[in-house]
Description:
By secondary structure, the chain is of the alpha/beta class. It has helices at residues 17-28, 83-93; strands at residues 9-14, 31-32, 40-44, 50-55, 75-78, 108-112, 118-122. Strand 3 and strand 4 (50-55) form a beta hairpin. The protein is globular. The termini are far apart. The relative contact order is 0.20.
Amino acid sequence: MSVRLKLSAITLDCPDPLALAAFYQAATGLEPHPRSNAEFAGLNREDSLLLGFQRVDDYRAPSWPGQTVPQQLHICFKVGKDLDEAEARLLELGAGKPEHQPHDAARARVLTDPAGHPFCIVAG
């Protein structure tokens, strides 16, 4: 008997779930989960994948690319061909841009969300 797993949710730890959900909603256009609150907020994708954000006391942001506080998770988003435009929009929404960029800037860039989680934007 073969078991197949279907990914149903990705949840990020953070200090303020509603604020982080608002950032990702503005960046992705995903719909907020109707029962989002200060302890757990979520965004729904059409295929029922949930992007969740859970409040953690004494949250410490990852120290990417260092490992003092490991990143533990890294999400990548395809953004089309204009990485400069996507980067500018995300920085305007509150993303950060680490100095260390391991990829060719024409292909991909590493940013951090307002809670410090690194994520990539990829031309595609």
